[in-house]
Amino acid sequence: MRSCPVVRFPPLPTTSRQRFTVATCVHLHAHTSRHQASLVNVPALLAFDEKDYSIAMENAPGRPLHELLISREYFDRAFKIGLRVVAWLRNFHLTPCSDHDLIMESSQPFKAYKADLQYTRLFEYLSPPQVDVAERFLHRQIKNTKSVLHGDLNSRNILVDDENRINVIDFEQGQVGNGIHDVAYLVSEFVIYSFFQNSDPEEQIKRFWREYDWEFRNRLRWEEYRQHLAFQVLYRLKGPSRQVWAGHLDEPTRRQIEDWSLRQFAEWLL
Fold this sequence. Notes:
Blueprint: H1 16-33, E1 40-41, E2 45-49, E3 54-57, E4 63-64, H2 65-69, H3 75-94, H4 100-118, H5 128-143, E5 147-149, E6 158-160, E7 166-168, E8 175-177, H6 179-196, H7 202-212, H8 219-238, H9 242-246, H10 251-268
Parallel strand pairs: 1-7
Antiparallel strand pairs: 2-3, 4-6, 5-8, 6-7
Keywords: Transferase
InterPro entries: AGP_Transferase (IPR051678), Aminoglycoside_PTrfase (IPR002575), Kinase-like_dom_sf (IPR011009)
GO molecular function: transferase activity
C-alpha cells in the first residue's frame, strides 16, 4: 500500500460573490424541485444578503446521516435513507433550472478545481494505459453541462430526524455537469462502510443505480458510474478530508478498500 503524505486543500479559485451566487441559485432550484420527490426536503431560504454574501434558511431538524453510517447498528437504516436521497437526486438532475447559465458561469472555476482534486491527483495510482482512458473520461465530464448538481452531496449534508424525515443542505459547491458525479460521490461512502461492515458492496452499488437510472441496460452510463465510483472511493481514502471519511477504519480495512478501487480501475478504465 502506498504511503499517504499530508494533503491539504489548495486555495479556492472562486470569489465570495461566485460562491454566494451558486449557493443561492442551486439551493432555490433544489427547494423548487423537491416537490417532485416529497420524501426529501430542502429547507427554504428565508433571507440572503448580497452585501455580505450571507444566507439564512429555515431550521433543518435531524442529525447527519454520517452518524448512522459509521454505526454497525444503523447501517441498514442509513442505506434505505440513501436510496431515498438518490431517488430525489434523479428528479433534481432532471428538473430544468432557469438559472442554469448563471450557475455554470459562476461555478466553472470550482468545477475544474474539484476535478483536479478528486480525479487528476489520483492518476498516480493508474497505469499509463489507464491514465489515457481516465484523461478522456475526465475531459467528457468537465465539458458536460447537462444538469445542475449539488456538488458536495456527502452524508454530513444530509440530515435525518427520528421519523426518518430527510433534509438536504449546503449547496455552495453546486455546479453544472453530469449528475452521475453526485450519485457516485454519495455512494462511495456506502462502499467504504460496506467494508467496515465486512460485506460485499456490489449489490448496494447496483441498488443505488437502479434507483437513479431506470435505463439500467444503458452500458455507457453504467460505465461512467463505475468510473466515477472508483475515483471517489479512492479520493475518500487519500484526499484532504480523508480523516472524516476513513478515520474510523483500521489499516487492514483501508488496504481492502484501496485494493478494491485499484481493481475497479483495472476493470472499468479499459
